[in-house]
Amino acid sequence: MFLNIQNSTTSVESFLKTTPVHCQRLEEPRVKPLIKILSEKLLPTHLEVSVIIPRFSDDYYQSGKPYSIDANTRKVIWSKYDELRPLQNLYVTTYYAESREEIEQIYRSIDSSNSVETKKQILGGLCRSNGFLPESKKVKTGQFVTALRRAYTCSTGLNSKLEDTHYYDLSNKTEFNNFIDQIKALDKYISSFQKDTFKSKKFATGPIMAAFLILGKKYGIDNPKFIEMFDSLVNEKVNTHQGVGGLNDGVSVVWMDLYQKHNPIGQWTLSSEGYGPVIIGNILYCLDSYMSDTLLNIRNHQSIKGIVQKDQMAISYFKNYHTM
To answer: Which residues span the domain enclosing 47?
Structure first.
């Protein structure tokens, strides 16, 4: 393959006339989030587009004709919303291909998950750019996006956004700025673990991390009782059940009842959007009781107060937590 690449400019109108390459993914799922971004501020990168010119013809391609291989979602938006169109020419990178296979290879190199910054990468970058260098891999690489998202919806009452898989406002640092102090403390706790210990894996699961952020925001990470509670949680300081109907503190219930009930081998829950709030709601209930020195009644893993409670009760506790 003879490698060739050219850079030039073109009008928005000319770019809108191009046909997407045959392997272009569907634009529709990305239109709404991108409209929000383009409506807020047009950046120089939004003027950069890419086309590919095939040096062959078949039932889809015409030799010498440009086909859009990047910025196809922007093209959909610009064709429907005149007010969002740039008022200047676009900067075009032009590639050439000898076959459909080459087109697919170039497309994947431009528009793949490997070449696009993921939400985890954005989150990790925000940590590093905010004046502190995370020590734990979990925070350094942004591997707590879902925990942060659930903590944000819980603390703000924006629960309708929880089921919206496109809802993230990381680009504007909204969730990040809301929990910056708690994120720093979270990094400190996780990095203090011995590498690859079972305890660190348990503590670093999503629901516990989300609960840490939520409770740290509510009580303050410097609150002595909060520090005591999380020292007990991190180090699994549990009390033995005092028989059927015995009393236990909230941390003991988290590890001895909730964790064992749902999955004792390392994960709290399946990766469904609906189940996470059930676990987090129960964890919050337990740890709130610890903060208030209230012991919980345990009866065959069911408390008369509802701990390890029915799903809808736990979800309600999660969704109404911002009013407590």
So the answer is: 5-110
In b/e form, how buried is each residue of 91-103, taking b as 16+ CB within 10 angstroms? Answer: ebbbbbbeebebb
Q: Please write the tens of the pLDDT for every residue from 2-30.
A: 567 889 999 999 999 999 998 777 666 67
State whether 96 and 143 are in the same domain. no
Report the amino acid identity of residue 222.
D
CA distance 249 to 239: 8
Give yes or no for residue 270 having a pLDDT over 50.
Answer: no
Separation between Cα atoms, residue 49 and residue 11, nearest integer Å: 11
Within this chain, do residues 97 and 123 fall inside the same structural domain, yes or no? Answer: no
Instruction: Answer for the pair 211, 247: CB distance below 8 angstroms, yes or no.
Output: no
Which of 80, 110, 140 marks a domain boundary? 110
CA distance 287 to 225: 11
Do 10 and 96 reside in the same domain of the chain? yes
Q: Which residues pair with 2 in a beta bridge?
A: none
Q: Who's near 70: CB < 8 A, 6+ residues apart?
A: 49, 50, 51, 93, 110, 111
Q: State the Cα–Cα distance between residues 290 and 248, nearest whole angstrom.
A: 10
As a whole number of Å, the CA-based R_g of the chain is 25
Q: Concatenated DSSP letters for 216-256?
A: HHHH-TT-HHHHHHHHHHHTT--PPP-STT-EE-HHHHIII
Q: Render 177-223 in DSSP notation, one character per residue.
A: HHTHHHHHHHHHHHHTSPTT-HHHHHHTSHHHHHHHHHHHHHH-TT-
Q: Tell me if the pTM is above 0.85.
A: no
Number of domains in the chain: 2
